[in-house]
Amino acid sequence: MARLHLSDASWRTTFPFLVEPRENEWLMGLLLHCDQVNHWGSGTTLTHICHMNEKSMKSDWTLIVPSGLELSALADALAVTHEAIVATTYQAELARIYGVADPNALFLSTSFSFRLCPACVAEDRLLTRTLALPHITICPRHQIMLVNRCLCGTALRPFHWRSLPFRCFKCGLDWAELPRNKAEQRRIEIEEQLLSYYQFFWTYGTPDVLASTERLVYDSVVEKGEIRAPLSDKVFLSETPDRSYRRTSSLGYLVHLLWQLDLNPGDILVYAGPLPWRSTKWTRFQCEVSHCPYVAMLQARRNISERET
Amino acid sequence: MMTDSDILVPRPPFVVHDDFLETAFELRFQNLLQQAWQMRTWHVIAALPGSGKSFGIADLIHQSNSCKDSKGTTRLPVLAIRAPKNGGTDLALGTAFCTIFGIVPAMPWYVRRAWLVQAMAEAGVECIIIDDAQDLNLAHLAFLKELTDNLAAPPYERQVALCLITAHSGKIIPLKEIFSRPDILWRQFRRRLDTERPFCLVPGHTEEEVRSILEAFETIYRDQLPDLHLLRWTRPIFSWLTHATLDPDETKRVTMDHLTRLVTVALRRSYCLGASDVDGATLTQTAELMVLRRDEIVEISSEPPDPDFPIQEVS
Fold it and tell me: Could you tell me if B42 and B176 lie in one domain?
């Protein structure tokens, strides 16, 4: 636990009351937590850091990635490392997966709605990064449904100049008092699977793995002929320095397709190999040669994938 | 035959030590502040300019164990500020208080006003010290009363000590006249002052106290002037520094500022001359500078030194 004394030079350059990012805490939650311990209105820290009003914040208030927000200024004001603040976003993960230095929030999802777990708010005033993941509607810790509307019917907004942190801007209800509805077991199982996909990408995701996933999904759709949805949600990836763009899919979209097609992370690992290949779930590579090196390689990859899963 | 000791090695520049010395004045002054802090009493504390009030306050703050931790807890038992200069409104005083906490985002003054009370209560402020309090105006004092009243009221119910530190001259203690006015506000303010010691005056150093400070200076500067023996000059130093020019109120006390100036200038001169001790002549010359020639105008007419950098024509 960092401790600043009045004689430290950074005393005057930090906020009056300090907070540090907690495990898996989302930047949005950290900013609100900072507002709360400092007795400020909702969004005061954010406004101070980005020096812009609420109108311009609307362009990207998801805080999935910094989106131009000066995170080093926040790190200095909280006397924590820049890395600790970056870890409250998906900046590092998305940058690695998509192979870009400055990823866009669209790489995670093309649409976003703010949801929260009332139990996490009640216990720790915590908003986790998991809340930002597309298709996740249950708190993995409390196994209750995430909430996106207040009891008064108003859609929840993370920051509003008229409200206190962690409260509805319309009726003032504490988010901790929002209903806690138990999730269905079937949905819990689905979301555990979805989270395992995300975890796979956070751990192993690279542009190659992403490309393999897109190929795997495409081949699987062709194979099964079942999916009606388009194979890409048309996220455009800038390729510097010539600023040309190529089409890619958001991670949330891919994860959903993987789940729909019943593919697992192991399939992606195997598919990332150099061979033209189909999912090990329904086809096997056949070779007439008794000691085919490709069969041996595939077997080795399968072993790796089974260990990973 | 030439030995190593014959080789003249240029001396490094003289180093002035500005360590905090726990002088008799500081002990008196800090003891008063500590008591006020402990008993949560209000005082107007006056001392001559240059006595070491600000040093004493800074030292007390360092001892007060103020800290911020990353779990949202900030402790600031002693909140000390310098009174805003050039008048100003209550906003100026409020801003001075806020600055002590660190970065406070821009917010309307009515919001900041409420925030300040909340932040002071949360940080456990127990004693407010305002240095140069003679610069406070009526708006500042009214805000100070409002602030402390709000802290004392529910839900905080925190009694805080208040020490208004003023520089005085002559027999007049600043603020005393204001607090004796008949207006309700000042009567309320006056009522809050300590019963036994509402207005305190902390004097400078006696001759004996000067002696102990000179002893401390001997220790501090012995590494630069190995044979330094200042104690023998106690009496003349005390006489010079209580001269009517430096002690116009005839307190017959010496301020730390005067004593430090005299000693450091004399020691620097002796050091530059290659001496290992200070002599009477150097001390006398320095004292004359301070006492008799203090308003002398010095004409700087020597040739300017060659610049260390090449001068180029700017196109």
Answer: yes
CA dist B141 and A214 (Å) reads 70
What are the residue ranges in chain A where pLDDT is below 50? 52-58, 242-244, 279, 281-284
Return the SS3 of A25: strand
Asked whether residue B308 is assigned to any structural domain, the reply reads no
Please indicate, yes or no, whether residues B94 and B107 belong to a single structural domain of this protein.
yes
Residues B109 and B257 in one domain: no
Q: Same domain for B171 and B33?
A: yes
Residues of A with Cβ-Cβ distance to B67 under 8 angstroms: 3-6
Question: Would you state the structure tokens that stand for residue B80, as one six-digit string?
Answer: 């000390």
Q: Is residue B1 assigned to a domain?
A: no
- Pairwise CB contact (< 8 Å): B68 & A17: yes
Delimit the domains of chain A by residue range. 9-177, 206-308
Contact residues, chain B, for A77 at CB < 8 Å: 103
Indicate which of B70, B78, B100, B117 best probes the interface with A, i.e. most A CBs within 10 Å of its own CB.
B70
In the block, tokens 């949905």 appear at A187
Domain extent for B127: 24-201
Round to whole Å and give the CA distance between A239 and A257: 25
Percent of chain B with pLDDT strictly greater than 70: 94
**For position A55, what pLDDT does the model report?**
45
HEC sequence for A101-150: CCCCHHHCCCCCCCCECHHHHHHHCCCEHHHHCCCCCECCCCCEECECEC
- C-alpha neighbours within 13 Å on the C-beta side of residue B119: 26
Residue of chain B minimizing CA distance to A36: B72
- CA distance linking residue B94 with residue B112, whole number of Å: 8
A156, A148 Cβ separation under 8 angstroms: yes
- In-domain check, residue B14: no
Indicate yes or no: CB of B122 within 8 angstroms of CB of A19: no
Residue A263: name the closest of A246, A247, A277 by CA.
Answer: A277
What is the spatial distance between Cα B173 and Cα A211, in angstroms, rounded to a whole number?
81
Tell me if B121 is assigned to some domain: yes
Residues B211 and B169 in one domain: no
Pair B48, B182 in one domain: yes
Domain boundary among B201, B219, B252: B201
Mark whether B81 and B176 lie in a shared domain: yes
* CA A284/CA A287 separation, integer angstroms: 10
Chain B partners of A79 at a C-beta cutoff of 8 Å?
A: 68, 70
**Tens of pLDDT, residues B20-44:** 999 999 999 999 999 999 999 999 9
**Cross-chain residue pair A39–B103, CB shorter than 8 Å:** no
Q: Say if residues B181 and B191 touch (Cβ distance below 8 Å).
A: no
Q: Which residue among B99, B102, B105 places its CB closest to the CB of A14?
A: B102
Same-domain status, B232 and B168: no
When divided into structural domains, chain B yields a total of 2
Examine the fold and report which residue of B150, B179, B201 is the final residue of a domain before the chain moves on. B201
The domain spanning residue B74 has which CATH number?
3.40.50.300
- Interchain CB distance below 8 Å, A39 and B118: yes
Residue to mutate among A1, A7, A10, A17, with most B CBs inside 10 A, is A17
**Which whole number is the average pLDDT over B142-158?**
94
